[in-house]
């Protein structure tokens, strides 16, 4: 019998290329006990260099080192 029901499963996105951080912002959610957090939009370039397209990915910044780098 397997223990798969108790294991956490994740989908991780791994990519290579160039992207830009846009819309760096501190989100201040409403509600009791809600804590502010840092968020960004990544503008990821995709396609050939003759016809570049952007894909926009909204992300939360997690971890002290990541937050320090984004706030620079």
From TrEMBL:
It comes from the Bacteria. This is DUF3577 domain-containing protein. It comes from Pseudomonas oryzihabitans.
């Amino acid at each position: 019998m397997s223990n798969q029901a108790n294991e956490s499963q994740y989908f991780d996105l791994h990519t290579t290329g160039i992207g830009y951080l846009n819309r760096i912002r501190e989100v201040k959610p409403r509600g009791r006990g809600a804590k502010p957090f840092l968020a960004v939009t990544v503008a990821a370039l995709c396609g050939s260099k003759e016809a570049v397209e952007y894909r926009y990915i909204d992300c939360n910044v997690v971890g002290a080192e990541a937050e320090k780098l984004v706030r620079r």
